[in-house]
Design a protein that fits this description.
alpha/beta; Metallo-beta-lactamase, Chain A; seven-stranded mixed β-sheet; five-stranded mixed β-sheet; 11 helices; globular; binds zinc ion; NDM-1-like; RibonucZ/Hydroxyglut_hydro; Beta-lactamase-like protein; Metallo-B-lactamas
Length: 306
């Protein structure tokens, strides 16, 4: 349990500062577990892989992109931005998965607004009872009431930020684009070392959407929710992360009975991307790679039955 961790629940929490007025709140990739030895969303979906949320600050306003994995983490983000003089906060969810919304109650106050894509809100409403029973439970699911569908421009202080819906990883994916700095906050649409495939029946759409993303945001820097803390601190990934994600999905969905990538370790599948420095190999993603193979096989079995 978190309480049992040496140094307390924030023992390995880091605040990174990749650009002026842009912060990443990073935890995980430590080799230890945070919550429990049993399989659970917090450890296996987030802490083991490393997780970052972000704040973008302009004057006394801040945009927070994802609510972090616990209310303790979210409260630490809140203290940090308050310490910088922020009095008005907008919280944006990248998608409906537990590791992106769990900390939200700690961010709720009289001067905060929660925003998400329309489907994110309906998914949270559908799953809130399950989330309350999950391990660890999320007893208080904050469902945003400010919703958008395809695209929304927001003013945060003097800055304009853009929200864009992409059907990658989940169909409610929201990426955040900061045009003045050509910065793309990708949520779970892009991960290093490999995308965590969910909604595998939509993989052909995910590929088209990744190509649309590459066309729409050329020559940008990318900050993902699950990536290397060193790379995030140094300013993020290049757009080659999008190309690496496309290549990975392509080899995993090769239209033959058993794609070669299913027999290979992830380390081998992404060898060339790692050599080029587009990806950084992180061993914990071997498990994600095996899960990815399983969900693709399952989606193929289901498609064959229809
Ligand atoms: Zn995630």
């Amino acid at each position: 349990m978190a309480e049992a961790r040496e140094g307390g629940p924030l023992a390995t929490f880091q605040i990174l500062n990749p650009y002026p007025d842009i912060y990443a709140y990073y935890d995980g990739r430590t080799g230890e577990r945070f919550h429990s030895d049993r399989p659970n969303w917090l450890d296996d979906g987030a802490f083991a892989l490393g997780v970052a949320t972000y704040s973008i600050i302009s004057g006394t306003e801040a945009l927070i992109y994802d609510a972090h994995i616990t209310t303790t983490h979210a409260a630490a983000m809140q203290r940090h931005i308050q310490g910088l003089g922020v009095t008005k906060t907008t919280i944006l969810y990248s998608h409906f998965h537990a590791d992106h919304i769990a900390g939200a109650p700690a961010l709720r106050n009289t001067n905060s607004t929660f925003i998400c894509q329309r489907i994110t809100a309906s998914k949270l409403d559908e799953t809130k009872d399950e989330l309350a029973e999950d391990d660890p439970p999320i007893p208080d699911v904050v469902i945003p009431t400010t919703l958008y569908s395809d695209q929304l421009d927001l003013k945060i202080g003097d800055l304009t930020v853009e929200l864009h819906n992409f059907n990658i990883h989940t169909r409610d994916g929201t990426v955040l684009w900061l045009p003045s700095q050509r910065l793309l906050f990708a949520g779970d649409t892009l991960e290093d070392t490999a995308t965590y495939i969910s909604e595998a029946e939509n993989l052909p759409t995910h590929l088209n959407e990744l190509r649309r993303m590459a066309d729409q945001f050329p020559e940008s820097k990318i900050l993902p929710a699950h990536g290397s803390p060193e790379r995030i601190a140094a300013g993020g990934y290049g757009t080659s992360l999008i190309q690496a994600t496309i290549r990975y999905i392509e080899v995993m969905t090769e239209p033959i009975e058993r794609p070669k990538a299913w027999e290979q370790m992830l380390e081998k599948v992404v060898e060339e991307d790692v050599e080029r420095g587009d990806l950084i190999y992180f061993e914990e993603y071997e498990r994600v790679h095996r899960d990815n193979m399983e969900v693709i096989r399952e989606a193929r079995r289901e498609a064959a039955q229809v």
